[in-house]
Amino acid sequence: MGNLDGKIALVTGSGRGIGRAVALKFAQEGAKVVVNDLDSDVGDAVVAEIRDMGGEAVACNGSVTDVDFGERFIKTALDNFGLPDIIINNAGYTWDNVIQKMTDEQFDAMMDVHLKAPFRILRAVQPHWKKASKAEQAEARRVNRKVVNISSIAGVGGNAGQANYSTAKAGIIGMTKTLAKEWGRMNVNVNCVAFGYIETRLTEATDEKTEIEIRGNKIGIGIPKSSADMLQAMVPMGRAGTAEEAAGSVYLLTLPESDYISGQLLICGGGLII
Predict the structure, then answer these.
(1) What are phi and psi of 105, to 5 degrees?
(2) Does an H or E element contain 109, and which?
(3) For this structure, is 251 an active site residue?
């Protein structure tokens, strides 16, 4: 028996890194998972991984920034499993530059993936959750549903070279607190996790130039080893966090024990605050 038995969980950006670790953790705890990744082969591989371990999963791949993605994501859950219980807005990346060199495209890209995409997904699920909540209240039954939005310590304290990313990650905190107030009467818990220095392909310590392609744009990933060493030294626990540890912080906010926690920001950073 798992702590999430019978739950239906949707996780964006769950083909790699933290998102993958979240999807696998949820599946291990008994949830049925809707996986998403920009790259279909990567998303499908996580679905296969979950099924191989005896779990249930389907993929809804593609860019979360597509105008119709939110509706399609929710429909995938409804068509395959039923009404979603848990939504994790995790998908994202960084596209850094100092403000005087940052283009409108760079700025807008971060708003689209980190802020507008979660907005569209949550807007799409609201009518379904409202209808279910009314029926449950009529039966004197309480069912809690969970949203965990993903932010960053850059959204809390800012970070040089990330005016776009930091602004978007600060915005998702505001959205979290607003929806906690709007959706409380529907018994929906809306919380946010801000990550510190977590080991992923985006933060890999490397002095080699590495790029990924997103919508035709070449995006640099990884950080110089000297910068990684400095970051690690700033963390009170003396090391970067793992994807599994990051997933654990998200998982905590989906447990029944979190049913009276809403509108909160949890920093998962090994003691690193800003």
Answers:
(1) -60, -40
(2) helix 104-111
(3) no
Contacts of 123 (CB under 8 A, 6+ apart): 70
CA-based nearest residue to 263, from 187, 192, 172? 192
In terms of Cα–Cα distance, which of 20, 128, 116 is closest to 79? 128
CB contact at 8 A, 33 and 250:
no
In angstroms, how far is CA 74 from the centroid of its own chain? 15
Tell me which residue has tokens 């995409």: 117
Q: What is the pLDDT of residue 247?
A: 98
Q: How far apart are CA 143 and CA 94, in angstroms?
A: 36
Pairing mode, if any, of strands 210-214 and 86-89? Answer: unpaired
Catalytic: which of 93, 165, 197, 251?
A: 165
Sign of CA dihedral 235, 241, 245, 247: positive
C-alpha–C-alpha distance, residues 75 and 60, integer Å: 10
Query: Is the pTM higher than 0.85?
Result: yes
Q: Which residues pair with 212 in a beta bridge?
A: 219
Dump pLDDT digits (tens) for 96-114.
Answer: 999 999 999 999 999 999 9
Please, what are the domains in the chain?
A: 8-200+242-268 (3.40.50.720)
CA distance 232 to 262: 31
Report pLDDT for 50. 98
Residues 191-230 pLDDT 10s: 999 999 999 877 777 777 777 888 788 888 777 787 778 8
Residues of the chain short of pLDDT 70, as ranges, are: none
Q: Specify the amino acid at residue 120.
A: R
Strands 188-195 and 86-89: unpaired
